[in-house]
Structures are given as structure tokens and as C-alpha cells.
Specification:
Blueprint (H helix, E strand, L loop, with lengths): L1 H20 L7 H9 L3 E6 L8 H10 L5 E4 L2 H4 L8 E6 L4 E6 L8 H11 L4 E3 L4 H7 L4 E7 L6 H11 L8 E6 L6 H6 L9 E6 L4 E4 L7 H12 L18
Parallel strand pairs: 1-2, 5-7, 6-7
Antiparallel strand pairs: 1-3, 3-4, 6-8, 8-9
Helix pairs in contact: 3-5
Length: about 250
């Protein structure tokens, strides 16, 4: 336990030091692909050099958002592998296998806060906590179906439940986005009401399908990996279409 903590602290320190001195360079397509595979969300600046527009802004943004690895690629022959033709800051994420581009020549204004905002909005992870910022990236994703975990932060089992579903999420990458909604936040009450829930009902799990604007609840009981996996598979196989939606009267479940 102590060894793990020490290694984590050393790694965090190394990343912080690297970001303070400059962004790492990726010199070929293999290095770019390895970097993309190294984390749930990464950002790469496809820039001609460290003097190019966007470099200092990306560097400063990466120092504020230490949980998102950032690097640059100056090799133009590599850019075409990722459909990049000019200076671009690109976010890659695994949750929906998405590439989001900020083309610098098209940016009305480019500053550190703008790059931070670009990353924060599009930082969709295997399990993403819903708020006003992440909502933009979630609803702009091509994946329109959300597996929603409603839970009260600080409640018994909250962290374990979040980690359990976060570990399951990669199985449904590109098919469902896993979303965490904190039932203890007043601004989230509307989302709970939409599913016919109150904060005292939590934790619960539901599915929202944006294409059909339909929603369903997993029946009350243990929120196990197996039950949630089966729930997701039931949706993907079309088995929920004939099931009454959550929030209807009488209160309806799978």
C-alpha cells in the first residue's frame, strides 16, 4: 500500500515536472498511437514547432489540467494519419472512440482559458460526472445512449460503486456512455425527477436513449457488475423497447 502510494506520488511529480519544462514530443505515428492508448483522455497539439500558435496555450492549459496527458507532434507526415491538415489541438477519448479537433486557424480567440474550456467540455471518460460543463461533451457525442448511475456523493459504497461501473464501461465503449449523477446536488434534481426518483431512492441505475428519448430503470436491488451488464445488453438487443419507461405511472421498472 505504502509502496503504491510512493510510486503514485513519484509518477505525479514526474508528469508535473515534464509539463513545467515543456510538452513531450511524439515523433512518429506509432508514438502518437501509443500516447492515445495510454489514458482514457489525452490531448495532442499537432503543431509545427514549440514557437507555433497554440503551443504556449496548450502547455499552460496542461499545467492546470494535470489529469489529462498532453503532448505535441511536429511531424506533418504523421498528421495525415489522424486527418489533420493544419495546426490543431486534438482531444482523443476512449469512452466513445472520439477525436475532437480545435483547428487553430478557425478559432475566433485562442488563449489558455479557451484551451482549458475545450478540454474540460470534451473530457468524457469511461464514467463521467454530470455537470454543466461535461453535459456539453456528453450530449455532443455521437453515442446518444447513457447508462446513468444515480448516487449521493459521500454515501456508503459510493466510491466502490463508481469504480465498479467505471471498470465495466470499457466493455460498452462506443455503444453507451456511463454517466454519474450526484443526487445530493440541487441542480441534478430535475434529472432525478425525469426518472421518477428522489435522492432518498438512491443509488439506482437507469438507461437514457437520446435517439428515442426513452428511459428505463434497473429494478431495485444489488447494483452488481453482472446485473448492470445484463441491463446494458438488454438495451442493445432491443429488449427494453416494449418495457414501460421509468417515471411513468405506476412507477415502472424492467
Amino acid at each position: 500500500m505504502l509502496l503504491t502510494l510512493c510510486m503514485t506520488l513519484l509518477l505525479s511529480s514526474a508528469i508535473a515536472t515534464e509539463k513545467e519544462s515543456g510538452l513531450p514530443r511524439l515523433d512518429d505515428a506509432k508514438a502518437v498511437k501509443a500516447f492515445i492508448d495510454s489514458a482514457e483522455v489525452v490531448v495532442i497539439g499537432f503543431l509545427e514547432s514549440e514557437e507555433s500558435l497554440g503551443y504556449k496555450e496548450l502547455l499552460a492549459a496542461s499545467q492546470k489540467l494535470v489529469a489529462v496527458p498532453a503532448a505535441i507532434c511536429t511531424e506533418k507526415e504523421v498528421w495525415t494519419d489522424f486527418s489533420i491538415s493544419s495546426g490543431t489541438i486534438t482531444l482523443f477519448r476512449k469512452a466513445d472512440n472520439h477525436q475532437e479537433n480545435l483547428v487553430l486557424a478557425e478559432a475566433k480567440k485562442l488563449d489558455t482559458d479557451g484551451v482549458v474550456n475545450f478540454i474540460s467540455i470534451n473530457e468524457v471518460r469511461y464514467i463521467t460526472e454530470y455537470n454543466q460543463v461535461t453535459a456539453v461533451g456528453l450530449f455532443n457525442s455521437e453515442v446518444k445512449t447513457h447508462l446513468v448511475l444515480f448516487a449521493n456523493r459521500g454515501s456508503k459504497g459510493y466510491t466502490e460503486l463508481k469504480e465498479r461501473l467505471g471498470a465495466l464501461a470499457p466493455e460498452f465503449s462506443g455503444k453507451l456512455l456511463f454517466v454519474l449523477i450526484n443526487g445530493g446536488v440541487k441542480s441534478n434534481f430535475k434529472s432525478l425527477n425525469y426518472f421518477g426518483l428522489k435522492s432518498t431512492d438512491l443509488p439506482r441505475v437507469g438507461i437514457y436513449d437520446g435517439d428515442s428519448d426513452m428511459k428505463w430503470l434497473l429494478p431495485e436491488g444489488e447494483i452488481s457488475t453482472e446485473r448492470v451488464r445484463d441491463f446494458c445488453q438488454s438495451f442493445l438487443q432491443g429488449e427494453l423497447k416494449n418495457v414501460k419507461q421509468a417515471g411513468e405511472e405506476p412507477k415502472t421498472e424492467l
